[in-house]
TrEMBL record:
Bilayer-spanning residue ranges: none
Residues annotated to bind Zn(2+): 18, 31, 185, 189
InterPro entries reported for this sequence: Adenine_glyco, DNA-3mA_glycosylase, DNA_glycosylase
Protein name per Swiss-Prot or TrEMBL: DNA-3-methyladenine glycosylase I
GO molecular function: DNA-3-methyladenine glycosylase activity; metal ion binding
UniProt record, GO biological process: base-excision repair
Alphabetical keyword list: Metal-binding, Zinc
PANTHER family documented for this protein: DNA-3-METHYLADENINE GLYCOSYLASE 1, DNA-3-METHYLADENINE GLYCOSYLASE I
Family annotation (Gene3D superfamilies): Hypothetical protein, domain 2
Length: 210
């Protein structure tokens, strides 16, 4: 029997997977079907960046367990709808026990929706902007050995310059990992090859000419 890497563990089917996905039951489907697969949908990109902001200082397990509650509270993370949230919505969200009730993070999500509107008007889509910051895989180190990268630092600075909040380099790097801008599945993880194939087939979004 082939020895498992120190960065992988056998999954329910006996195939090796990233070690972190065994630490909570809800991590396995997230790891196998979402994490590291490329995303071009603006709503999903906005949602993930918001949720990474809410995770700041907390665990991803906490946020993932509450994700459906967040989606309901933030109207499916529809950018246009969230951008119209008012002070009354902030108070409503602060009373919602199903989410993380942190005023600064709630207000940041609403503020970032307005920043997203401006970015879409400028670039045509969030996807076009974010995928322009995809790093050269040759510049990346060993998977899951870093919490930031030169690219996440640059993207963080760009977003902050445009007014976005809760988008530090670590938050942005986690976003890039999850949305497939990098394939950070461990070497030997059975899903790494699947994510690589999805990335190879992915049509990178460009700036809209409309």
């Amino acid at each position: 029997m082939q020895a498992m890497s120190t960065t992988t563990l056998p999954g329910p089917d006996g195939q090796p997977r990233c070690r972190w996905c065994a630490s909570a039951p809800e991590f396995l489907p997230y790891h196998d079907t979402e994490w590291g697969f490329p995303v071009a949908d603006d709503r999903r990109l906005f949602e993930k960046l918001c949720l990474e902001g809410f995770q700041s200082g907390l665990s991803w397990r906490t946020i993932l367990a509450k994700r459906e509650n967040f989606r309901a509270a933030f109207r499916g993370f529809d950018i246009e709808r969230v951008a119209r949230f008012t002070a009354d919505d902030v108070e409503r969200l602060l009373q919602d026990a199903g989410i993380v009730r942190h005023r600064g993070k709630i207000e940041a999500a609403i503020h970032n929706a307005r920043c997203a509107q401006a970015l879409i008007a400028q670039e045509g889509s969030l996807a076009a902007f974010f995928w322009r910051h995809e790093p050269d895989p040759a510049t990346l180190g060993t998977p899951q050995t870093a919490s930031t990268s030169d690219t996440s630092v640059a993207l963080s600075k760009a977003l902050k310059k445009m007014g976005w909040k809760f988008v530090g380099p670590t938050t942005v790097f986690a976003f890039m990992q999850a949305m497939g801008l990098v394939n950070d599945h461990a070497e030997g993880c059975v899903v790494r090859a699947q994510a690589a194939r999805a990335r190879a087939a992915f049509a990178k979004p460009g700036r809209s000419l409309g």
